[in-house]
Structures are given as C-alpha cells and as structure tokens.
C-alpha cells in the first residue's frame, strides 16, 4: 500500500533530525521540506500540508525558548501529532469497527458512483459474517440500472440475504422496508447501499438525507476511491455536510492510489478510515488502523 511509502519517506525525513549534530533552522527546514514534498506527492491537500508545516515550525521555535528540552523529540512528536490529527480524526476507530452482536446495527453506505460502494457493502458484510454476525444487504439504489442485480449477485456469492425492488422508485421507502424486514428477522448487521452519482448533486444529497432519516443508521460510512487525490477533501466535506458521516472506507488501494487524498478526506470528515479495499474480489478488504500507521512512522 502506498500509504506505507509515504510513511517511509516521512521516517527518512525525521531521521535527518535524529542524525544531525545540532538542530538549527537549516536542518529543520530541510527536514520539513522533505516531509512537505512527500505529502504533496501523495496528494495530501496543499492547505493541510501548509498547516502541518507551520504548526511543526511553531512548536520547534517554542522549544528554543524552553531550557533543557530535547528539541529532537519535540520536533519528532510535533510531526507525529500533526499527522495523527490529520489521520486519526480524534475518534477511536476500534469502537466503530467492534460492532455489538445481537442488536441490529444499521450501517448506511454513501459515496459517489464508481467509488466501489456496492462492492464494499458486500465485502463489509462478508467480513462480519466471518466474525459470526448475521448480515443482510438492502439495495436503496434506484438510480443506477443494474445496481440491484449487482448487489444480488455479490450477496448471493457470499450467501448474504438481500432486499431490493425493481418497481419501487423511492429509495427511502425501499431502505425503510428492508431495514424493518431484516430487523424482524433478527439480523444484527443491516447494510444499506445508497445511490451514487457522477457528481455531487443536490438530488443525490437530498436522497441520501431521506434514506438516513428513514433508516436511522447507527453508522454512516463514506466510501471513497483512494486514488482521487486533491479532490478528496471537497468531496468528503460535501458528504459530511449532508449526513453524519462517521467512518471512511478507501477503495482501490491496490491501484494507483497514493493515499494522500485519504488523509485529506479524514481531515475533512473528522472520521477515521476503518477499512481499505485492495482489489475487486470479495476478500480483498482489510482493516486500517490509523494509530498504528502513524505509530509506525517512528519505527
Ligand atoms: P459503486 O458505483 O460505488 O457502487 O461502485 P461499484 O461497487 O460498482 O465498483 C465500481 C468498480 O470498482 C467495479 O468494477 C469494482 O469491481 C471496482 N472496485 C471496487 N472496489 C475495488 C478495490 O478495492 N480495488 C479495485 N481494483 N477495484 C475495486
């Protein structure tokens, strides 16, 4: 995964600080320049990168004023803290992943068309099925012809019950009926797939809002193509402004994704990345642990 490459580059930059005989402005600037370059190359939003740079500098300069403080450690910690706050969002992602069995967890998926939502819904269901949950899938995508068939096909393959309609045109009605039916049947994980559009349009957001009102999800997951780069922040923000996005799943991390868009999306939604998709197959899906990722930066 390319996010790891970013991690390696940042570690290397930090080693400049660790290896320098004394830490002056020049060393700090050289180190920060490498970090900034690595983040920009990874498609992290320019504004966020600038903010990280300024904050680390401020903390390093403040360290000059304090006597006896280890400047190396302060800089190192500042970089890690800044990355953590970008990536970890302040939310404990484990709480969002460790669903409680035996109660109906309703999880709604949102995202642009082509992001990988429908595929990810089934991967997500299959992941929890392996853990002993009783998942079910609801197709509330009435916009894209074939969406229900695609979900049906995936669900059948993974032996997960599904609900949808070829005739009902109101996605909020389908979603509500599906959730109700599966709650009655004692499913403890009810996954609601919603429509995407190519662009962020008002109608998409209104529909999403209605589905959310009707199904009262416990968690809304924003599915984002991991390779979208600089556009990630705006896109993520637009979704977050409409519904209560609580977590992010990045797809296509097997392809050309540089991962930096992810950092920007997390910063925009203040929601952690919980899983990543690493291929088209149902088992190409893994947990992502933001704290572990940042922790590894320091080796
Ligand atoms: P939706 O429009 O958001 O529901 O997207 P789909 O689930 O239909 O996925 C769009 C395309 O992306 C399909 O061809 C999927 O097979 C593919 N896809 C989804 N997730 C991944 C992934 O993690 N890696 C790769 N390589 N392809 C993926």
List keywords for this structure.
binds guanosine-5'-diphosphate; 14% strand; alpha/beta; 299 residues; eight-stranded mixed beta sheet; elongated
What report would you give on this structure?
With 299 residues, this protein is of the alpha/beta class. The protein contains twelve helices and eight strands. The chain has helices spanning 2-19, 25-41, 46-65, 71-87, 93-97, 117-130, 147-157, 171-184, 202-215, 232-242, 260-269, 290-297, and strands spanning 105-110, 135-140, 162-163, 189-194, 219-225, 245-251, 273-277, 285-287. Strands 3-2-4-1-5-6-7-8 form an eight-stranded mixed beta sheet, with helices on both faces. Helix 10 links the parallel strand 5 (219-225) and strand 6. Helix 1 (2-19) runs antiparallel to helix 2, helix 1 runs parallel beside helix 12 (290-297) and helix 10 (232-242) runs parallel beside helix 11. It binds guanosine-5'-diphosphate. Residues 111, 113-119, 196, 251-252, 254-255, 277-280 line the site of guanosine-5'-diphosphate. It is found in: Cytoplasm; Endoplasmic reticulum. Keywords: Cytoplasm, Endoplasmic reticulum, GTP-binding, Hydrolase, Nucleotide-binding, Ribonucleoprotein, RNA-binding, Signal recognition particle.
């Amino acid at each position: 995964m390319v996010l790891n490459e970013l991690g390696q580059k940042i570690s290397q930059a930090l080693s400049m600080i660790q290896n320098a005989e004394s830490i002056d402005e020049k060393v700090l600037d050289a180190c920060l320049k490498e970090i900034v370059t690595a983040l920009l190359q990874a498609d992290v939003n320019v504004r966020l990168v600038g903010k990280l740079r300024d904050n680390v500098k401020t903390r390093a300069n403040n360290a000059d004023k304090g006597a006896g403080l280890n400047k190396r450690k302060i800089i190192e910690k500042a970089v890690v803290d800044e990355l953590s706050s970008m990536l970890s969002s302040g939310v404990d992602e484990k709480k969002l992943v460790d669903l409680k069995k035996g109660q109906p967890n309703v999880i709604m998926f949102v995202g642009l068309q082509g992001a990988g939502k429908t595929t990810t819904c089934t991967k997500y269901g299959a992941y929890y099925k392996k853990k002993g949950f009783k998942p079910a899938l609801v197709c509330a995508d009435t916009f894209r012809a074939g969406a229900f068939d695609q979900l049906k096909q995936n669900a059948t393959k993974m032996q997960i019950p599904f609900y949808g309609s070829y005739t009902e045109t109101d996605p909020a009605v389908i979603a509500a009926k599906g959730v109700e039916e599966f709650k009655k049947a004692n499913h403890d994980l009810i996954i609601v797939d919603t429509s995407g559009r190519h662009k962020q349009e008002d109608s998409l957001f209104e529909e999403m809002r209605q589905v959310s009102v009707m199904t009262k999800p416990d968690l809304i997951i924003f599915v984002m193509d991991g390779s979208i780069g600089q556009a990630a922040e705006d896109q993520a923000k637009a979704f977050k402004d409409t519904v209560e996005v609580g977590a992010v799943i990045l797809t296509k991390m097997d392809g050309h994704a540089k991962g930096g868009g992810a950092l920007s999306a997390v910063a925009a939604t203040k929601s952690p990345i919980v899983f990543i998709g690493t291929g088209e197959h149902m088992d190409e899906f893994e947990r992502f642990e933001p704290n572990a990722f940042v922790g590894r930066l320091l080796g």
